[in-house]
Amino acid sequence: MNRTRCPHCKGKLEQGQRIHAECIAPWADAQAEKAKRAAAKKARAAAKVERASIIARKEAIKTIPELIKEAQHAFNAYIRARDAGKPCICCGQPLGAGEVGGAFDCGHYRSTGSASHLRFDERNAHAQRKVCNRWGAGRAVDYRIGLVARIGLEAVEALESDNTPHKWTREGLIEVRDTYRAKLKELNKANR
Ligand SMILES: [Zn+2]
Ligand SMILES: [Zn+2]
Question: DSSP labels for 17-39?
Answer without folding.
Answer: --S-GGGHHHHHHHHHHHHHHHH
